[in-house]
Design brief:
- The protein folds into 2 domains: 206 residues, Bira Bifunctional Protein, Domain 2 (BirA Bifunctional Protein, domain 2, 2-Layer Sandwich); 43 residues, Roll (SH3 type barrels), CATH 2.30.30.100.
- By secondary structure, the chain is of the alpha+beta class.
- 30% of the residues lie in helices and 31% in strands.
- It contains 8 helices and 12 strands.
- The chain has a 7-stranded mixed β-sheet with strand order 1-2-3-7-6-5-4, with helices on both faces. A 5-stranded antiparallel β-sheet has the order 11-10-9-8-12, with no helix packed on it.
- The chain binds biotin.
- The site of biotin has 20 residues, from helix 2, strand 3, strand 6 and strand 7.
Length: 262
């Protein structure tokens, strides 16, 4: 798989700058990559697995990881200050959203980085930072894309809210092609972040779900906030106008649109 992936990247004019490791089964590509990072792996190291037995999502959720889907993690060592680094999860979501669009599905990104087609999730991003002496050392960006998906493999509560490239992009089941697309877009968004962080929020917003001005519910830690989604600030935080008029700044959480909002 790794030769094929490198070849696909070269075809796109992008010689991949780091090692690419492929495994049949891992607990989690991100866990393996973090181990490799501790052992000195260079920036742009990629870990891909055919399946994960302990795939992790945001907010402590599991990520169901059957064969056929894409599970990859990339090691970044951002030479950027902490404020810009806070935009990395947004940038990664934008990159994956663009990749899914390039593969033929009309994707949008939901704050902070869920990639949806319509209201169903097709891909997710888990960005995990490691700090050393209060300085950002590295970020492992884990990406899961549902390339093919059999509803039987999903728990009942996820069946109506999940989709795949096969369902949304004219039957596309090319996992390696999806991996190349994701990696290529990640490099573009990452270099943009390093060069001109302000452009990330603008580009992300252009790809985002049309929720602005609508009522949403956001779960963040133990708190649940309800308000009107205003936008994201220059750190990538969600701005939510609460019913009492205050504007809450939510740095991390899970958002969902409320239906009776008008
Ligand atoms: C989410 O939307 O909740 C994020 C899902 C991230 C899943 C990917 S799959 C590759 C990498 N390894 C993991 O254990 N998680 C990420």
């Amino acid at each position: 798989m790794t030769d094929q992936l490198r070849a696909l990247l070269s075809e796109r004019g992008r010689a991949w700058p780091g090692p690419i490791e492929h495994f049949e089964t891992l607990t989690s590509t991100s866990d393996r990559l973090k181990e490799m990072a501790r052992a000195g792996a260079p920036e742009w190291t990629v870990v891909v697995a055919d399946r994960q037995t302990g795939g992790r999502g945001r907010q402590g959720n599991a990520w169901i990881s059957p064969v056929g889907n894409l599970f990859l993690s990339v090691l970044l060592k951002p030479p950027i200050h902490a404020a810009a680094a806070g935009l990395l999860p947004l940038a990664a979501g934008g990159a994956v959203c663009e990749a899914v669009r390039a593969l033929g599905a009309p994707a949008t990104v939901k704050w902070p980085n869920d990639v949806l087609v319509g209201e169903r999730k097709v891909a997710g991003v888990l960005a995990e930072a490691t700090w050393v002496d209060r300085a950002l050392d590295s970020v492992v960006v884990g990406v899961g894309v549902n390339v093919v998906l059999s509803p039987r493999e999903l728990p009942p509560d996820l069946r109506d809210v999940t989709t795949s490239l096969a369902a949304e992009a004219s039957g596309s089941t090319d996992r390696d092609g999806a991996a190349a697309e994701v990696l290529e877009r990640l490099t573009v968004w990452y270099h943009t972040l390093a060069a001109e962080a302000a452009m990330i929020v603008e580009a992300w917003r252009a790809l985002s779900v049309p929720w602005w001005g609508r009522r949403v519910e956001v779960r963040s830690g133990d708190a649940t906030l309800v308000g009107v989604a205003q936008g994201v600030d220059d750190r990538g935080a969600l701005l939510l106008r609460l019913d009492d008029g205050r504007v809450a700044t939510v740095l991390a959480g899970e958002a969902r649109r409320l239906r009776l909002d008008r």
